[in-house]
Amino acid sequence: MKLSEIYKSNDKLIFSFEVFPPKNGNTENLFEELAKMNEQKPALVSVTYGAGGSNRNLSLEIVKELKNHLKQPVMPHFTCVCSSKEYIEKYIEEIENLGITNILALRGDEPQDIEVCYRDFKSALDLIEYLKKHSELEFAVAAYPEKHPKAKTFDDDIDVLYKKQNLGAKVAYTQVFFDNECFYKFYDLCRKKSIKIPIIPGIMPITSFNQLKRIVELSGTKINSKVLAYFEKYKDSKEDTIKAGIEFASLQCEKLVDFGAKGMHFYTLNKAQSSVKVIKNIT
């Protein structure tokens, strides 16, 4: 099913999950977790790969397993930084030969340990424009409720999302956030700028205090002192932290549903438990 069909207007909440290729290459545990996620009948499972296309082969193996054996709807990530047009064309062919109809089109992170970095694509907009001409794929895009780190202003960032929509993006998934007010303001600004595609909140149930601090450091996601203190008091107990993460994410999702969100995109970190429990709590 294509993105345009998945996100047609309806009253049912639409859930999706994100996973990534394990660093050790062992996918056995991942597939066990994916089987648990599958019980929630996700609309999509998105599969990432590393900077500059690293882990792409393993990512494709996971995509094949999801589609052919677990029978899960799958949406590969598709990044362009440091990629040549030839590389992108080959990847398009591989994806379409698998019967994939949807991708998440991103600029991607620039790798630190690569000698040759092609500059055929400077941004996600370049990639999306190329995909429109060379494939039948439908694509989702990224959105940033707290502004993309490299955007000069919020207006500039929203203008980029508007351009992605005009090039054919069917849905936008947001970067993870912990303050719903950021999403509400961002959503309202997007609608005022005539961005009409579904904007799906990115949710990550916290499972460790160190993980939370790392997310903030790497992504620049804002987190207020009350939320930080809420998780810090459980930092010495993994079990209590997981429970607190589920409670926090469940309340966050309930408020987003009340606001009118059409669904949630869960950043699972390859673990099903917390995201599945949040879904059960809100449905």
Structure description:
With 283 residues, this protein is of the alpha/beta class. It has one domain (11-282): TIM Barrel (Alpha-Beta Barrel), CATH 3.20.20. It has helices spanning 3-6, 28-38, 56-68, 85-97, 124-134, 154-166, 180-192, 209-219, 225-232, 238-259, 273-282; strands at residues 14-19, 44-47, 74-79, 102-106, 138-143, 171-176, 199-203, 263-267. The chain has an eight-stranded parallel beta barrel, surrounded by four helices. The radius of gyration is 18 Å and the shape is globular. 39% of the residues are buried. The mean pLDDT is 90.
Keywords:
single chain, 283 residues, alpha/beta, TIM Barrel, 8 strands
The N- to C-terminal Cα distance equals 23 Å
What's the number of domains?
1
CATH topology: TIM Barrel
Low-confidence regions: none
Sketch the topology as an H/E string, one letter per element.
HEHEHEHEHEHEHEHHHEH
Q: Please tally the β strands and state the result.
A: 8
Please tell me how large the radius of gyration is: 18 Å
At a glance:
This protein is α/β, with parallel strands linked by helices and 283 residues long.
